[in-house]
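Hello,

I think I submitted the zinc ion job twice by accident. Can you confirm which output corresponds to this input? Input:
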Amino acid sequence: MKAPVSWIRELVDLPAEVTTEALAARLTDLGLKLEAIERPGDQITGPLVVGRVLTMEPEPQKNGKTINWCTVDVGAANGTGEPQGIVCGAHNFAPGDLVVVVLPGGVLPGGFEISARKTYGHVSAGMICSARELGLGDDHDGIIVLPADAGDPGADAFAVLGLDDEVIEFEINPDRAYALSLRGVARDAALAFDAPYTDPTDRELPEPDDAGHPVVVDDPAGCPVFAARTVAGLDPSAPSPDWMVRRLTQAGMRPISLAVDVTNYVMLETGRPIHGYDADKVRGALRVRRATAGERLTTLDGTDRELSPEDLVVTDDSGIIGLGGVMGGATTEMSGTTTRVLVEAAHWDPVSMFRTGKRHKLSSEAGKRNERGVDPTICGAAADRVVELLVAHGGGVAEPGFTLVGSPPEPDPIVLGGQLPARVTGIDVPVDAAVRHLEAVGCTVERDGDTLTATPPPWRPDLTDPFDLVEEVARVVGYDQVPSVVPTPTGGRGLTRSQRLRRRVGRTLAGAGCVEVISFPFTGPAALDALGLPADDPRRRTVPLANPISTEEPSYTTTLLPGLLKAAARNLGRGAAGVSLFETGTVAFPSDAGPAPIYGVEWRPTEAELEKLYDALPAQPLHLAVVLAGERERAGWWGPGREAGWADAVGLVRRLAAELGVALTVRAASLAPWHPGRCAELVVGDGDDQVVVGHAGELHPRVCQAVGVPARSAAVELDLDALLRYAEDVVPGPELSSFPVAKEDVALLVDASVTAAEVEAALREGAGDLLESIRLFDVYTGEQVGEGRKSLAFALRFRAPDRTLTEQETGAARDAAVAAAVARTGAVQR
Amino acid sequence: MSGPNTDYDPVEVTPLKPEEVEAARDAALAAIAGAADLEALKQVRIDHAGDRSALALANREIGALPPQARKEAGQRIGQARGAVTQALAARQAVLEAEHEERMLAEETVDVTLPTDRVPAGARHPLTTGSELIADIFVAMGWEVAEGPVIEAEWLNFDALNLGPDHPARTMQDTFWTDPPESGVVLRTHTSPVQARTMLTRTPPIYVVCPGRVFRTDEYDATHSPVFHQVEGLAIDEGITMAHLKGTLDHFATAMFGEGITTRFRPSYFPFTEPSAEVDLRCFVCRGVDSQDCRTCRGEGWIEWGGCGVVNPRVLTACGVDAERYTGFAFGMGIDRTLMFRHDIEDLRALFEGDVRFTTTFGSEL
Ligand SMILES: [Zn+2]
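Support: Only one job matched these inputs. Its output is below.
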């Protein structure tokens, strides 16, 4: 909402010393938020004066243009009183006209300095200005010709042009629709400065009668009030008065024609949107009803629309002629030949307005006001004001008759405790002060002890609850009066275990040289194809979005890898020799239990209802993914660098598991997007409770190529929620034996397909309780062990809690371990 | 050095002559002083203090002397040998020190050489920033609440007093899952976490909810369809706007430094009534000579977020006794907060994953 300060001051008698900044600041304190203060004359330095053209001599030029050599009376503004000689290229004026002259020394917008200069054989001492040159609009067809009574030659043109008028632009919150009018802005300005206020809708109105244009309202809920007046005998060519054009322009509306400008002007002034019909095109009575399915209307923007039974329409004998309160129809539109205007000022149901506007994707200044709520009591006054202005400036006459159908809905009284404002705001507001403040914003208040019954004024349809009134009291008292008191909760429990563990995950990975990334969680078939996911892969079953940002990525993602790989490729493309990236983020798998119900808000849904709601949501596990691409260790003075590989990926997971106290089992697996021979599945839990929480390893060479990362890049993706569920909570302290350790090494020949983990598990089980630790220290393949075989060498450490182990005991334990490995993995001891 | 005993005299053997002892001692001391390194000293020790050295041999002959002479000779030789032993030890210490010094000098390396074989990792500033915020509130006795990012429409809107005809429910702002009738959206704020908290817990409730949210905004230097919010909710008996102000003042001070507080301006949010916009005192210019301040653009204040007293309608929908309890809520963008705290010009830097950006912040903020 843009409000010219001169217009505000017309309605409220503010002290002269109140600056525009102060006015804007106080209104911001009251909830009308200052966006900007515009000063149209800011970029112009005088002398800028009114001039009267004395002579003009057209002089054709060689280049085909004709210039006018003019003498202009600028009074005493040039210091001599002599006529000023000025060359002017425009032709839309004549001797005797008043024009705007910038004299040498003046500066126009854009830093354009004016000086006397030789041009076309004359010394041109100044410039006759167009609206565009002054930054007042785009009109460059000619210079500004002022009205005959604009002022004497030599008078300052700033005031004449309104260049000294400041405009405050406010951001108006949806609940303060009243402030979408000068009437409302001025009312709050009066409240702010305790200044006398004139309500522009406070007018002497004729008594409604049946002499005017007939109106029938079939749907009083949709259209509670409908006022109509008619003005005839308008001069279609009559221009809008300059002051009106200026104010409309200042308020951000484009001047069009007198009839349209007047309706817009009255809307800005009162907040009430007005519709004007070409009365000669209207056939019979106006009727307001809901549309029926299948009906159509071509609105005056030229769009043919299919109407919904929820849409409110205005009809005449010819059918539908407008979408009530939203947009008129083409058939009764005012035009350049309109001489009779039927003025409609109607109150429409805001919810209907909102829905119709949304359905037809129509947003307009009128719609914005109608859907937020306009004072329903001012329809007659607004129509009367339109008539007044059309008669005054269009040469028309008001036809007899004032149609007024319906009556404005009465605001419901609100009962509140007089202490509520103090109880909610923490400001010390005595009850009588609360009453006073409520009355100041227009409420009628009845007090019964400490109980108040407040009836909101008709321009405040947003005030419906006691807490709404608390806000009104608070803004009048001033939000700056709210004290600052830190509340004292009765002791929190700190972070949850999961929250603490997740922090640890991030620190562990960062400590291992990985950099955290946050990507957008959207994906699409191309990204999943690049991962080589088979058609039936569960990660292909995504949660689709109805309105995705990009058609390439129409779904919420099921895997973090595409985003991470993209970031890796970007880093490598920007010159990194290698990157280690990780991300923790939610992925989503659809639920089949939808749709999610929408309950009322009058009471809490039952547990069963909530359960149904939760079930309809997609499963949203928190995932962790890592991508290691290119150099994992740098080359340096210490020697060559090292490319990332599968072992780095698996190693990171092992380190993480150790940090979290999770017993992790690594098994060979085969899953896209990993290399089928270099993919580990990550298993937690034991026995029947084993869960695969994710995978780690080298990426498939085709995937590396598709996403643009180096071959042998490695990756991890796991379900972090699942992993954390297996993190040990309360760890029992170990009992450490101080008896000596006994070491035994064993080398076992196994088939190449047998994994180290299988052999280790067998050894561990066979070795029994005396085994303290086991560690694989060598893998050998080659001629000595034969084709398709490998040798695994393990270091076993035995220790007893209560004695020194004898050689026999140690040997027996080792033999048992080997025997188990032989039995379970076909191993042969070397 | 003892020569062959050609002229044996049991009373006065040559090695025991005082001059001979002195000579042997002096020769030993000279050799010790002349030993250039530990190796040479080792030889000197064998030659002059070893079993075959002159003084050792002389010592052996003492027993052959008559008793009177024995004492005197014993004393003389003992003194000589003592002097040699002392000199040896002293020289040994000197040479060892020299050797150590030389060895350490030889082993000197350039400790300024790079040691970053594995490049440094880092956590994302949005993660560490969220944790910082969480920690500030946890220190006040609050807890950190969380909820799903794909959320029921009822929880994201209706329960928060954003009725079916609220503008925020149109397709303009919200990502809807397909089909739109599914009643499931990408949450547009973290407020549904507040609703969930009220639905599952009984007051007093003091929770802060940091998290990822979604709006169908253009992606540019100051907007992103994916961004992060932190919201707070306090429900207790006797909660007022003053508690809200106190909490936000404390938060501002903890996050931006002593003296940085907040101010309220009337505003509108369906979730709260009364509602306020909360501005943060500019922590760069502190509101003094703000004209040229880049951070607050001359305002002296920075728009930080929205807040207010929880609308009793919301309490009712979430099963909280609105007669007994009042509450306050607030919310602000974490991304935006970090942008002005760290002078980050372009929001997109947070989501590009460029390690050069992220490693700047290290692992803590
Ligand atoms: Zn500043």
